[in-house]
Amino acid sequence: MQKKYRLKNGRVFSYLHRKGESNANKMLVLVHAPSKYPLKAGFIVSKKVDNRAVIRNKVRRRLREAFRALIPYLKDSENYIVIAREACGKANFEEIANSLLHLIIKSNLLAARIDDDVAQRLKIKQSVLDKAKFD
RNA sequence: CAAGACAGCCAGACUAUCGCAGACCGCAAGGUAUGAGGAAAGUCCGAGCAUCACAAGGCAGAGUGCCGGCUAAUUACCGGUCAAGGCGACUUGAAGGAAAGUGCAACAGAAAUAGACCGCCUAUAUUUUAUAGGUAAGGAUGGAAAGGCGGAGUAAGAGCCCACCGUCUUUGAGGUAACUCGAAGAGCCAUGUAAACCCCAUUUGAUGCAAGAGAACGCGACGCAUAGGUAGCCUGCCUGUCGCAAAAUCGCUUGAACGCAACGGUAACGUUGCGUCUAGACAGAUGAUAGUCCAAUACAGAACUCGGCUUAUAGACUGUCUUGCUAA
RNA sequence: GUUUUCGUAGUUCAAUGGAUAGAAUAAGCCCCUCCUAAGGGCUAGAUUCGGGUUCGACUCCCGGCGGGAACA
């Protein structure tokens, strides 16, 4: 994920926490809100997920990889925070990618239909894709 | 063959597509090579480096404590001595001083740093036995009982005397030394504990890269000593001080570096030669997918940098040695 | 990242190197009561782990494990 998409400012983080809309499932929490910056995303993996740095790094890298593939299809006016919950420590990439897309669709943030080759690469299930609606 | 002891080594590899970090090349598009560990961990020791005055003197406090070597440095590494444990290979050890002083040693036991409960012997009285004295060989208690064991000696006993062992003093030989092996003499008087206080020797200023440096710089408070300057106290030295708000650069990776070879050394390690440049972020870089080989990946992620120690660790592999059994 | 402190019954706390590790409360059983509560009696339950020093360790020393606190 390129540097321009990274959320670095601590003030924006606390702003999103305070004002943003949040949606959650068993694995992840997605917080989003519009701000003065174009599309940016931050990832939070706390010690609650796992006490070992190796596992937390792996979870964060998988989240970033899954999010990177979906950037072209997202609304670019919003800022995002993805928070990992405890189930992420044991999940594989396929499960993380599916639940991330599930949250994005649930929050109604998809701007375009996802292409087949991307869906195949992320191993997105058809049942998740079917729920997508467009304005 | 079985059971062990010690030492060492590896820590998956490769291919394709997409993606990240800093570096280099390029006007740009883009391209090129490189990119976590043996413990990166714990922060238990030792240094470098930085600031506090160029950290100086004294007290207090703290660490260390057999000998030699190695090192930038260490009590922690290497080799040895001694002690303890093990049939053995081998392992473990903060291992100076108890004859400077103080404290403590529960319970048991007659008595715990000095001693007569039972016993033994002698004397007196005497039916049993009692009283007085001698005696530490025997019993009983204890972690520890007054050097051990044997002889001589005695009323019974006793280092009272003798031999051997132990202890101390003097001394000879070996060893760099700790110490070892002897000889002579003395004396058997003085228990243990210093990871109790302590004594002796020796080391030690504090704080840590969020240290700090330079540049830039907003607001507020106090006003020259009864204050502050990162040391518990004293001496000494220096100085305008404090609080709040908010960012970037440097420090930041060529280093007591790593690899290979030769030489010296039992080893830790050292010397020389050749070669290499090998993460440097700041919301914090190694991932995703597919495939091949394979018996198969455990513990686990750099944040100023090194040397050691400790702890976690799947699956193996290599070498040397010990004990037992069997066979030749 | 740096510094620092603590660990004793289920819980809250005691214990000078020498106890069978003590108290309160909670738990279980019994008594009391028509029943419950209160009260009385009895029972079981612990030194974070591994080494060392010592005749003897909750206590002293070393190392590990786990928790808390401070700085920022």
Q: Looking across the biggest beta sheet, what order are the strands in?
A: 1-2-4-3
Mean pLDDT: 78
**CATH topology term:** Ribosomal Protein S5, domain 2
Envelope shape: globular
Q: Enumerate how many helices there are, as a single number.
A: 5
Number of strands: 4
The helical percent reads: 40-55%
Instruction: Please identify the structural class as seen in this structure.
Output: alpha+beta
What is the helix/strand order?
HEEEHEHHH
Largest sheet, strands/sense/barrel:
4 strands, mixed
Give the amount of beta strand, in percent.
15-25%
Task: Please state the CA-atom Rg, rounded to the nearest Å.
Answer: 14 Å
- How many angstroms separate the termini? 27 Å
Low-confidence segments, ≥5 residues, pLDDT <50? none
Name given to the CATH architecture: 2-Layer Sandwich
Top CATH class: Alpha Beta
Describe this structure in words.
Helix 2 links the parallel strand 3 and strand 4. It is built from 5 helices and 4 strands, in the order αβββαβααα. The longest helix is centred in the middle third of the chain and has 18 residues. The chain is globular and about 35 Å long. It has one domain: 2-Layer Sandwich (Ribosomal Protein S5, domain 2). It starts with 9 loop residues before the first helix and ends in a 5-residue tail after the last helix. The protein has 135 residues and is α+β, with helices and mostly antiparallel strands. Strands 1-2-4-3 form a 4-stranded mixed sheet, sandwiched between helices. Helix 2 crosses helix 3. The structure holds 2 RNA strands.
